[in-house]
Each structure stands twice: as structure tokens, then as C-alpha cells.
Amino acid sequence: xxxxxxxxxxxxxxxxxxxxxxxxxxxxxxxxxxxxxxxxxxxxxxxxxxxxxxxxxxxxxxxxxxxxxxxxxxxxxxxxxxxxxxxxxxxxxxxxxxxxxxxxxxxxxxxxxxxxxxxxxxxxxxxxxxxxxxxxxxxxxxxxxxxxxxxxxxxxxxxxxxxxxxxxxxxxxxxxxxxxxxxxxxxxxxxxxxxxxxxxxxxxxxxxxxxxxxxxxxxxxxxxxxxxxxxxxxxxxxxxxxxxxxxxxxxxxxxxxxxxxxxxxxxxxxxxxxxxxxxxxxxxxxxxxxxxxxxxxxxxxxxxxxxxxxxxxxxxxxxxxxxxxxxxxxxxxxxxxxxxxxxxxxxxxxxxxxxxxxxxxxxxxxxxxxxxxxxxx
Length: 377
Ligand SMILES: Cc1cc2nc3c(=O)[nH]c(=O)nc-3n(C[C@H](O)[C@H](O)[C@H](O)COP(=O)(O)OP(=O)(O)OC[C@H]3O[C@@H](n4cnc5c(N)ncnc54)[C@H](O)[C@@H]3O)c2cc1C
Fold this sequence. Notes:
The chain is an alpha/beta fold. Among the domains are: 4-53 and 174-242 and 338-373, FAD/NAD(P)-binding domain (3-Layer(bba) Sandwich), CATH 3.50.50; 244-335, D-Amino Acid Oxidase, subunit A, domain 2 (D-Amino Acid Oxidase, Chain A, domain 2, 2-Layer Sandwich). It is 31% helix and 27% strand. It has eleven helices and 18 strands. The strands form three sheets. Strands 1, 2, 8, 9, 10, 11, 17 and 18 form an eight-stranded mixed β-sheet that branches. Helix 2 (22-34) runs parallel beside helix 8 (172-185), helix 2 (22-34) packs parallel to helix 11 and helix 4 (77-98) crosses helix 11 (360-373). The chain is globular. 44% of the residues are buried. Flavin-adenine dinucleotide is lined by residues 18-24, 43-46, 49-53, 55-59, 61, 194-196, 229-233, 236-237, 248, 250, 284, 331, 333, 354, 356, 358-362, 364.
């Protein structure tokens, strides 16, 4: 039961966006910039964004050599180039919008660790460099073996180090905080703790239903257009879409005295990633150890993966160093049959951008721009 006042002032919006991750917030910002006089509301089910955007590794992620070669087995060169360029555009937009200092963007170097199993990838490095050259304007990958010892890695595991000249890093927390502030500053309204249970499209509007435990009844909000930016959780609202959740588990050490490594690092086709942050090592991945178990939207840690991450930290990354784990967490990504994100108009009122894989930090801003460029008039 709504009051007269609530009905007058809190129920109708021009545009509603579901999800306050990087894609939802960027979509709201784009909407406000395109329609400055119209109201834009973001609905987020968590008190904090509760998906991937606040829980990732903060790679300004362009993809490693073995990851791109792995992709080339399932997709053609055009698609690989399209996705690479998309990430580049997304990062440029994010950096221009918020500023490098604000989001902690740095280019401290990006590297891939190559063990015996991946040595064959080196034969294809020139081919990939050539393929990407129209976008990168310089070879994306080069050998950097002179740095293996200076980073302190275990030589028994690492045969070659490949430098990725196009990839940087950012501070995930600062970035999402700044994006939220930027949205608010631009007049976007954000409601957290607002779990959208369903929507109904009518002729003249879309009605969005939100669970409201306190009132004991659903709250129904109306809008002219709805944008669904719910990534791994999209099937609840759009059950026919090809979206499969994939959990990513992460750990971070306490600060390590004299830590040698700096920059961001991948290995095993991008399934593992680690970086230096605030004198600590953040390490994540291992989803490939248990694809079935990690196909979930549960924010839970498993012994299998956490122990594997610790073992790799000890054996490969920090072989001669004592460390303590400070924190562990999980985030949920979204995958599908292809690596391309879904950016789509479902009707003239309902739109969606989701399935960002492990690349949403890079893709998110430009994906949102494309979503809002779809005609809403
Ligand atoms: C561990 C980990 C490491 C990663 N590392 C990187 C990296 O280094 N570089 C990179 O580019 N990418 C990385 N990614 C991927 C990247 O974080 C995601 O692709 C990106 O954050 C997706 O953004 P999004 O806005 O689409 O989704 P999300 O951030 O998941 O946002 C979706 C939001 O929708 C909300 N929501 C869902 N359903 C509803 C509903 N019914 N009602 C209201 N709200 C709802 C959720 O609570 C959530 O906040 C990583 C991801 C993980 C998990």
C-alpha cells in the first residue's frame, strides 16, 4: 500500500537500470548524458554491488597470448579482433571519464608465465602480434626472460616470460567508488537493497517489481525504458538468454617485505592471474580445476581451489618468501557459448547488456555506450 506522496514522487522514472556493477552504472551515466532532463534510477539488490565489479582483480584486461590462441580455436580472427578493440575502447572511455589517478590506473607491466606445457605458444607469437597490429600499432607481445629472476619466480616452473605491452592495472575499489560518485554527481538515483523479482512490459511503460520485506508486499515502479545489467544473474529475469555463471576465487597476502614483483601476471590461458597491490600479492583463478563446481552463483570459497592457489603462490610465485594470507573472497562472472558479451534491444522498451566474462572492467564502459546508443525514442 503506497501513500499518495510516495505514489506521486517515488514510483515513475524515465529510465530504470537493474544492477550497479560497472555496466549498470555506466549505462545509467550514458542515459543521463543522452537525456539530461530525464530521470534515471539504478536498482541494486545488494547493499553493495554484489556480482563481479567490486570483487575482481583489477586487470585493465586485454588478454594474454595463450588466452588469445585458445580463443582462436573456437572463434575466427574477426571476432578476436572485434573483442580486442572493444576492450581497448572500453578502457579508454573509463580512463577518460574518471581519470587515471582516481581509479589507480598504472602501467607497471603485464606478463604471462610460460611453463613447459605452453612453450608451443611462442611459435605463434609473431602471428598474433601481426593479427593485432592494426589495433595495437606495436607488437602486443614480446619475450622478457631477463625479468624472470628479478621478479623472484621459480625457474623450474617458468621457462619463458612474455611481456604484454598493452595491458595495465587499476584499483577496483577506487574505480567502482568513483563510478558510483560520478553517476550520483550526474543526477543518477541509486537504490540499494532493491532486488528486482520480475518485470512486465506494457504498451506505454515497463513495470518493475521489487521485493520489499518491510512492507510485506512488492513495490511496483514504472519506467519508459528498462536496461537489464545483471551479468551472471540475468537468467532470473531473462530465462532464455545464454548466460552461465562462473565463480572466481581470490586471495590476497599481508604486505610482504622486499616484494620483488610489480605489475600484473597471467598463466595457464588466463585461468590464473596475480598482481602486486599495496606491497601484497593478489592471486585468483583455478576455475578450470572444477568447472562444474564453479558454475554457480554462490559466493562461497572451496578448499580445492583455495589450497591450489596457496600451493601455486608458494611453489611458483613466492618460492623463497614467507607470506600470510590476509583475505579471501569470491565473485561471480558470466559466460556463454561465445566470449562476446550480449548487448541487445529486446523491444523498444527493454534492453540488456550482460555476459562480460573475465573482461568486464575493460569492456563495461563501451558496452554501456553501445546499449544506450540503441534507439529509445
Ligand atoms: C574474481 C574475479 C576476477 C576478475 N578479474 C577481472 C580483471 O582483472 N579484469 C577484467 O576486465 N575483468 C575481471 N573480472 C570480470 C569483471 O569483474 C566482470 O566482467 C564485470 O565486473 C561485470 O560487470 P557487470 O556490471 O556486468 O556485472 P556485475 O558486476 O556482476 O554487476 C551486476 C549487478 O547486478 C546486481 N543484480 C543482479 N540481479 C539483480 C536483480 N534481480 N535485482 C537487482 N540487482 C541485481 C548484482 O547484485 C550486481 O551488483 C573478474 C571477475 C571476477 C569474479
